[in-house]
Amino acid sequence: LSSYPSYIDLLPSIQTCNITNLPENYFLKYYLYHALTWPQLSFVAVVRPKGGYKAGGGKAGGDLSGQYPKVVGYVLAKMEEEPTDGMQHGHITSLSVMRTHRRLGIAERLMRMSQRAMAESHRANYVSLHVRVSNTAALRLYRDTLGFEVEKIESKYYADGEDAYAMRLNLQTMW
Ligand code: ACO
C-alpha cells in the first residue's frame, strides 16, 4: 500500500472483514490499540478502488467510501504483554480472508509477514494462537502449511463452549 490511505483509514474495513468471517469480534479501539502499539505486526490484503484514488480524497463531507480500498484479508497480531512463561512471544489475535478471495495464498502470506516482523522487530521466541477444534481449514493452514504445533487443548475456550487448540510456532530460526 502507498502511504494513502493509511492502515488507520482501513480499520472500519478490517472490522467488517472480521465480522463477516468470524464470531469473535472486537471494538474498533482494540484494532487501534494493535495498530498503535505494534504497528509492524498487522497486515491487510486489499482490492484497490476501480480507477484508483482521486486527488484530494473527495469533497469535504462527501462520501469517501469509494476512495478506500476494500480489505479482503487481514492478520491482527500483537506481542504478549505479560507472558506467563517469561518468554517474549507474539500472538495472532485474529486472521480472516473474505470467501471471494480464499485459496489464493492470502492467509499464508499474511501470516508469514507477521511472523517475520515478530522475529525481526521484537525478537519473538515463538508465535502463539488459538483455533477452534472444528476449524479444519485454519488447522490445515497453521499445522500443515506453516508448521505450528498443538501445545494443548483449552476446554470451553470460546463463548459458545467450543474447545480451542492452543498452537505455537518457534521463530528463533528467523532472528
Ligand atoms: N480446506 C483445507 N485446507 C485449507 C483450506 C480449506 N478450506 N483453506 C486453506 N487451507 C490450507 C491449505 O493447505 C492451503 O494451501 P493450498 O491452497 O495450497 O492447498 C493453505 O491452507 C493456505 O491457504 P490460503 O489460501 O493461504 O488460505 P486462505 O487465504 O483461503 O485463508 C482462512 C484461510 C484464513 C482459514 C480462511 O478460510 C478464513 O478466513 N476462514 C474463516 C475465518 C477463520 O477461520 N479464521 C481463522 C480463525 S483462528 C484465528 O483467528 C487465530
From TrEMBL:
<dbReference type="GO" id="GO:1990189">
    <property type="term" value="F:protein N-terminal-serine acetyltransferase activity"/>
</dbReference>
<protein>
    <submittedName>
        <fullName>N-terminal acetyltransferase A complex catalytic subunit ard1</fullName>
    </submittedName>
</protein>
<comment type="similarity">
    <text>Belongs to the acetyltransferase family. ARD1 subfamily.</text>
</comment>
<dbReference type="GO" id="GO:1990190">
    <property type="term" value="F:protein-N-terminal-glutamate acetyltransferase activity"/>
</dbReference>
<dbReference type="GO" id="GO:0031415">
    <property type="term" value="C:NatA complex"/>
</dbReference>
<keyword id="KW-0012">Acyltransferase</keyword>
<keyword id="KW-0808">Transferase</keyword>
<feature type="domain" description="N-acetyltransferase">
    <location>
        <begin position="17"/>
        <end position="172"/>
    </location>
</feature>
